[in-house]
Amino acid sequence: MVSGYVAAVGSHSLTATATDNAGNVSTATLSYTVLAWNLKGFYSPVDMSTATTTIWNTVKSGSTVPLKFEIFSGTTELTDVSAITSFKVFQTATPSGSATMDEIELVTTGGTSLRYDGAGGQFIQNWQTPKNSANKAYKVVLTTADGSTITAYFLLK
Question: pLDDT of the chain along its 157 residues, tens only?
Fold first, then answer.
């Protein structure tokens, strides 16, 4: 009997137990690691933060921001939109303001939806920023099926 298989990202152990015809029992344990997917992006025109600096993308309130990115499982590029669990947008603290974390609806432009652009080799989600939201800050978070995330910050003008 084999037990302990887990496909979630992280370190795991798999245990196999066998009994022969004489009743002898043997057990073996194997440790393995499931690696997180490699997310690349968001690409231009979005600028990404670094480990030490939050980059604020300044965009006009009500405008559309193309969120472009790639997902890899090892060296295999994933192209099915089912790899994306969610896009969430939170109103957040401005670079010099008080903190709020209020999730708002991500609105796509012109009836378009999340798609994989085979010609460009990337996913694209067009985010229509909230109208009449000058001087408000937003955090956009993409989450994939394995739990990996990409986050970008926006300040509307």
Answer: 888 888 888 899 999 999 999 999 999 999 998 888 999 999 999 999 888 888 899 999 999 999 999 999 989 999 999 999 999 999 988 777 544 444 455 656 655 689 999 999 999 999 999 999 899 999 999 999 999 999 999 999 9
Domain limits at 117? Answer: 38-156
Q: Are 61 and 24 in a shared domain? A: no
Q: Are residues 25 and 53 in the same domain?
A: no
Q: Number of structural domains, the chain?
A: 2
Q: In whole angstroms, what is the distance from residue 2 CA to residue 118 CA?
A: 40
